[in-house]
Design a protein that fits this description.
Layout lengths: L1 H31 L3 E3 L8 E3 L4 H17 L3 H27 L3 H4 L2 H5 L1 H10 L4 E4 L3 E4 L2 H20 L6 H25 L5 H28 L8 H18 L3 H7 L1 H14 L12 E3 L4 E3 L2 E3 L15 H12 L5 E3 L5 E5 L3 H9 L4 H31 L9
Antiparallel strand pairs: 1-2, 3-4, 5-6, 7-9, 8-9
Length: 405
């Protein structure tokens, strides 16, 4: 089994080298094909090649295909192939989104379609739908468990896509999550070598490590070019692909709930964004922080209310209920408000975690903003990982991969 880890480390290094070689060689081709965007957070809004996330995604898929004849046994083949089909499908759907700019209401459920192969294999090979709830015991969720896993495949790619718009952040958050998954897998692998973990748990996390290590290699290479100041944009292809990697690892590894604790910043960002995502608060196409060319810092972006609203934006009055909620959120520093001379609210900060970080820590450079969010993700993830392996066994008197995921 150690050979599997060694091979995965080797593939991770190969993936890093290949992506580092391909991106500089091909980035101009993307611009020639019309796949580019303007970096609104730079002076002069330079043109940057976009959809470059397809390069590490395809590289990763080829690496995992090379894995098949060397490591995986027949008993694992169906699970591996279903995972790869999901990832290939999601990569294709992400690329179509980059090419044709698919609307949110149409693309939101695309990951659920891509996840059908892994859910079918899970049903045939495992069909394990019970969970252990502290104080209650084992509860069989039946088909609701499959709905939960399908929801997970929808959430993971979309959550990465929503928490985006700053140089390096799309890739940076996936790097941090992969590090947390590697730490979690290492806990079980070393625990088994010390005789404190079961063989089933050990095998599950060996397989997880074999998926995550090559992913970390290609993600690290992409981050090298996407970090501030970005030389390439990753596009929705990377967001959907990377999110689906985490989803298939969590589902096939039977630790979907553990995966969710590593996605707490993404969950908070989604919940915080709900009023704008579902139309309760006006939502501009881009809610990115605004760039000030004078001091080179990032500032909050705003939703404008009433008569002050910008041209071509539907005029929406700020109702009494929403105003009361905004005033409460302002007191606990969860939103920033701008008032006119009459004391009327004319602007409210856009509801994203990125803007919230600026509210808490003040304007900052784009590079610092990305690193701050990555540090928050890492700190929260490690804190929850410690709780997962200290508090959870005390609550359920067991830390097995079967009963407590």
């Amino acid at each position: 089994m150690i050979s599997e880890i060694t091979l995965s480390l080797l593939l991770s290094c190969v993936g890093f080298k290949v992506v580092c070689h391909l991106i500089p060689k091909t980035k101009d081709v993307f611009i020639k094909r019309g796949l580019f965007g303007k970096d609104l957070s730079k002076k002069g809004t330079p043109i940057i090649p976009e959809t470059v996330g397809i390069i590490p995604a395809v590289t990763y898929l080829f690496l995992m295909i090379c894995h098949i004849p060397i490591v995986y046994k027949d008993m694992k083949l169906s699970s591996l192939l279903s995972n790869l089909i999901c990832l290939q499908s999601m990569t294709l759907l992400g690329l179509l989104d980059d090419l044709f700019d698919i609307r949110w209401r149409h693309k939101f459920f695309m990951p659920a379609i891509a996840s059908i192969p892994i859910l079918i294999v899970y049903k045939i090979e495992y069909d394990m739908t019970h969970v252990l709830i502290p104080g209650i015991g084992v509860v069989d969720l039946g088909w609701f468990y499959y709905l939960y896993m399908s929801a997970l495949t929808i959430f993971c790619p979309n959550s990465v896509n929503i928490l985006a718009g700053v140089n390096g952040l799309e890739v940076g958050q996936t790097l941090v999550i992969s590090i947390l998954l590697i730490l979690n897998d290492s806990y079980y692998i070393f625990g088994y070598s010390l005789g404190k973990m079961g063989e089933n748990s050990y095998k599950i996390h060996i397989d997880s490590m074999c998926f995550i290590l090559p992913f970390f290699g290609v993600a690290l290479a992409l981050f090298k070019f996407n970090k501030y100041p970005a030389k390439v944009f990753v596009g929705d292809t990377w967001c959907y692909f990377s999110g689906m990697v985490f989803a298939v690892v969590g589902i096939s590894g039977h630790f979907a709930k553990t995966l969710m604790i590593f996605l707490i910043p993404q969950i908070i960002n989604f919940i915080y964004s709900i009023p704008q995502l579902f139309g309760l608060v006006p939502c501009p196409r881009h809610r990115l922080p605004t760039f000030n060319e004078n001091d080179q810092l990032m500032y909050n972006s705003w939703t404008v209310w009433g008569k002050e609203q910008i041209k071509n934006q539907k005029v929406v009055p700020l109702g009494k209920t929403l105003k009361a909620i905004f005033l409460l959120l302002e007191k606990i520093k969860l939103i920033a408000l701008v008032r006119n001379d009459k004391g009327e609210i004319i602007k409210s900060s856009n509801l994203t975690l990125i803007n919230l970080v600026i509210i808490w820590f003040g304007p900052m450079s784009e590079g610092k903003l990305c690193s701050t969010i990555m540090k928050i993700q890492l700190f929260v993830g490690i804190f929850m990982l410690v709780l997962r392996h200290s508090l959870a066994p005390l609550l359920v008197a067991d830390n097995s991969w079967i009963l407590y995921q």
